[in-house]
Amino acid sequence: xxxxxxKAQKILxxxxxxxxxxxxxxxxxxxxxxxxxxxxxxxFDKISELYENTKKEIxxxxxxxxxxxxxxxxxxxxxxxxxxxxxxSDVIKKGKYxxxxxxxxxxxxxxYVAPKGTFxxxxxxxxxxxxxxxxxxxxxxxxxxxxxxxxxxxxxxxNDATEKFFEKNNYFGLNKENIKFFKQGELPMIxxxxxxxxxxxxxxxxxxxGHGGVFxxxxxxxxxxxxxxxxxxxxxxxxxxxxxxxxxxPIATGLAIDRNTLxxxxxxxxxxxxxxxxxxxxxxxxxxxxxxxEITEDMANAKDESGELLYGESHILTNLFNIKALEKIxxxxxxxxxxxxxxxxxxxxxxxxxxDKPNAYKFEAFIFDAFESLDDMSILRVKxxxxxxxLKNAQGExxxxxxxxxxxxxxxxxxxxxxx
Length: 420
Ligand code: UTP
Description:
- It is globular and about 70 Å long.
- By secondary structure, it is of the alpha/beta class.
- The relative contact order is 0.16.
- Helix 1 crosses helix 2, helix 4 crosses helix 9 and helix 7 packs across helix 11.
- It has 13 helices and 20 strands.
- The chain starts with a helix and ends with a helix.
- The longest helix is centred in the C-terminal third of the chain and has 20 residues.
- Helix content is 34%, strand content 20%.
- Uridine 5'-triphosphate binds next to loops.
């Protein structure tokens, strides 16, 4: 271990991160080993670059942002609907369709300590988010008489609790052979001076690297090769916190096939020009999602001839990819965005600091940054009330109250439709 320690000391000196060994002597042998491993494997050049980027402003000066065509599911003619349905349902029936649920986030806004997927919808719906999603998969398996493999992305922090939850609930009646958990990557958190923080255990403070980490995590964990073995061609990727996500979608699949694109992004129309959501557009003629922080007021308000917002298709983190697109995307590194967050850490005197305001940068890749590497993608506008019930905050907008109501209304509509 002496050698490893010396190596770590040298690296830390070079990158001015010597604080990481402040509490080393007080750690037990196992933690000492882990800390040295962490230090000797960190990409310090990358971390310095990420820190420098926090000081830069993003500029769209040289980028050409234009409107992106979309298809409104509610306005499809019967012929179009039937054509897409046939193409898509053939894929699903033949077992060529899989679902990925990204459940590696920390759910800080919700303020719930266990993995977000284990959160009970409540108010008479005694189901967790995971159970509601598994219902959707089960129903599709029955409807199409097929198997829909389910890949669940977790993080180091919540993986064990997630796996145990599934085991305890008997995988909600699904065959566990068709469920695969895989952990996403992590990056260190740094303070405003670019110093890497130490966590409560005396180790490098790490945080999940964003939902865009899904591509790298899939290839590192052999998900793509597993999918290939199973003959999977189309993969639907969404978050754990949208209880209405239409996970198995023949229309989105048929649309991509018919338009010869390798992906379909589902959208809901923006409530108003100033809603704080990212919207689909084209950047330099390639698919892109422009964030609400990036869009100009003129663009946000611009309308087409029929009075619809030109940039009105909100990205709701429900996207379908062909396996070829995933292979292509996994080869490229996505950029990291920084978020300024509250993060507990151990200070230079060995004391735990629990900040009451943001104090550290967290780095995250966003899934939609991958769209640019595709020549084109299809956009399918779906109804908000049918496919989007986000659970983000403890109260108010996008909270358990709103998500629960949307879920109950949806289930009731479905029952009524069946009975009529
Ligand atoms: P959000 O960006 O809304 O984050 O994730 P979050 O972790 O749920 O909540 P906050 O921001 O800490 O309050 C959208 C979806 O992407 C997943 C989340 O689990 C959620 O399903 N996600 C996010 C990951 O899987 N990994 C990440 O690193 C970030």
